[in-house]
Amino acid sequence: MRISTSSVAQIVDYLIIGSGVAGLTFARNVAPHGSTLILTKKSRAESNSNYAQGGIAGVMDENDDVHLHMEDTLIAGAGICKEDAVKTLVTEGPDRIRELIDLGAQFNMIEDEHGAHHLALGREGGHSRNRIVHAVDRTGYECERALLSAVKDMPNLEILENYFVIDLLVRNVDGKRRCVGAIAINTQNGKLYAFLARIVMLSTGGCGRLYLHTTNPEIATGDGVAMAWNAGAVISNMEFIQFHPTCLYHTKGDSFLISEAVRGEGGILRTLDGATFMHKYHPLAELAPRDIVARAIHAERIKKGDPCVVLDITHLDDDFIRERFPTIYQQCLDYGIDITKEPIPVVPAAHYMCGGVKADLNGCTTLEGLYAAGEVSCTGVHGANRLASNSLLEAMVWGHRSAMHVISSPPSPLPKNIPLEDIQLSAKMAPLNDIRSMRNELRHHMNDLVGIVRTDKDLAKAEELLNSMETTVSRWLNDYAPHPELFELRNMVTLSELIVKSAIARRESRGLHYNLDCMKRDDINWHKDTELINEDA
Fold first, then answer.
1. Could you give the residue numbers annotated as active site?
2. Which one, of 40, 49, 80, 64, lies nearest residue 527 by Cα?
């Protein structure tokens, strides 16, 4: 369903949807060149970026090399990373980290024997060197804090909170389809507003809330990819959903991430009977790439019939644990787990979307006027599996590159009198209990049928169930008044369908897509992206 309105709230040069690291990086750079507006569905600090614990990967030490970082990324990506994108990431990344430091980001430092201070660089799975810049275990929060502080007083920049964007506005301009803005619901008053812009930047984050167990916040429902799909942009590699190997397993609370850095500092994975197992799956053991660790945990749980495994750091110094992982220590303590004395129960959980809206080296999507950066995009950096701590780096690099491209190639002005239909909307209230029930049902289906290990039978069943859900949601959209939870459910169903379609299409197992009915990696027929195009847009 497409909704438009004759009420234009604002006309700006740059409209940014989402207030994470990618969107804020873009905003900080374009605001001096034109009016800039950020729309965010919750508060400005609520984003996937804010919850990133581990760190930012970057070559910041003389003993490291960008070619090694590139090689590690390509290996983790299982053969379908785009080398030019990876090269861009690792070569430009260090400058973006230095910019954050100049903006006031406080990262962990160490003092050498001469009294000089240097970045304390950690190591995570898949990395051949210590290159992870971190702010204890709240790196994303610190990046977000520094960027929000940098933009808060910029004269050309405005941030509107509690605006849920439901659709992109696409019109024919000079014979071409062009994104000219977006339609949003103000979640405080329930009204619809149109925002027009010369350039629209999608930086809406991921879709972890499609799954029962996830490290993502409530807002991560895949809205950006869904609205780009509905607008006709090409979507790539949606079968590659990264499950973080270690998420707290606890029956009395919501899941939260146990950072990769815990294993990087020497954490050991064990089954519930105390046996180690990672040495059986990869030479790097606990430091293996995430897809391998997640599948290993899954296999051990199935083999032993256990609900979880444990991550043990009790052999490390107590004071070190509390100082290095203060957030994790306190959160676990809140659930009665003292990680200095007992191992942490963990399970894999949906964490990161390696596919998304297809974007080039400048962040341009296949739809004119629309850019994408951060987790919502598919730049080719991550391939079939993201290397740890490359996500914040990609958000900063592509947020910056997109801004530089827009500044160097200014978009043409919007045509006057862009047509906006005024549609008569139903006054009937949306059935929120039914919407929430279906949302919960969808998350269970995705967890059971489209998880770490897949089969053709499960994917076919998921497709059938999602088709039925889509029919019901489409009817609700036509019968009831617009409501954020209804559109959020629409987006979740759309994203789930795209993941399933992509998974069915890829007839091999590669990286994060592991299908028991086609186990071998096929570099002859499938050394390529899975691309989906909405012919009905």
1. 290
2. 80
